[in-house]
Amino acid sequence: ALRDGTVPKGDVLAVARVAGISAAKRVPELLPLAHTIGVHGCAVDLSLEDDHVAIRATVRTADRTGVEMEALTSVTVAALAIVDMVKGVDRSARIREAKIVAKSGGRSGDWVRPEDPQD
What pLDDT score does 14 carry? Predict the structure, then answer.
């Protein structure tokens, strides 16, 4: 249903993208110790793979703190939106993993997740 666009609730990937972008802006409301930062951009890319939807969020700011929580929240809420929309046609839908792949800037500098043979 997801591949052929017949999910009754509508365009799953479009809704998930909007949900993810909106979520990145609301992190301080959800995480009590998160700093309020100016999110200057958030892109949520979704790709339909063989047996899952891969979600990647890229968040930008000019602030001196990182945006890891904004990116993780974006990806997670996008995944929740997908599960919500497809649960009527696929009761086995699940969220498997959310992780930081890379970050740049901020006080701690750049970081890239080492390759994991299981990925």
Answer: 97
